[in-house]
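Before relying on records like the one below, remember that each one covers exactly one chain. Contacts with other chains, cofactors or solvent are not represented anywhere in the record.
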Amino acid sequence: QAIDGQSGKLGEDEAERIYNDPNCDRTAGTEQGVDWFAVREQLLSVPFPQSMATIGPIVDRLQVTAEFDREAGICPFGMVSVLFFFVKFLLESNPPDVISARAWMSLLDAIASGMHPHLLDAADWLVKDSRLIALRRVMLRLIRERTLKQQSGDERSEVPPAKKPRVFVYGKEVEHVSLLTQGASFCAKGQWGMEVHIHEWFLSSAHLVKDPEEAEFFFVPAYSICMFEAGFHSIPALDLI
């Protein structure tokens, strides 16, 4: 069930839990599932990657589909945080486990895509929308590098040069681009999702270059429809941006 006000109406219990207990305090001391109150306390007090001692057992539990679905309904914000740090761990391993990270990122997206970023940012968990976007960018970069190495026939080599035609994608160095590319997980869902998918296809493409001087084409990403429909910016504000 999405928490976006568009894909379907939340039940009274779900809405009460999401809006009145985003930190999942009422799970404190539970013996029926994950004690999300204790998990949150651990994540706030123990830095990553030491926090994997808390995250690992939860991830093991979530590999049972019924447990995953149950906990996602009880504490979606906690689930986003645990999955975020697990994907981060996989991507920062040596070597990065990109294949597993993609699989777990899809599960993270399944929850985050139904959650308006303003809700995520308002909850008192460590993972905000900006961190989700940064994690997606890291994964897309590693996918691109892996693709280029595979195409070169030597995955142990340095990353080969980009293929032609070479494309430069404007990013956070341009303030307006950052304003127009918020909520990638949320905006990738639904009828406006292609704006996100095209952007991320370029970011993972073998044609991407980091230096605009090397580029033959330029792409300026903007999730304009989502920015308006989801209430990020008004039409007049979008016109000014």
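The beta strands are 167-169, 208-209, 217-219.
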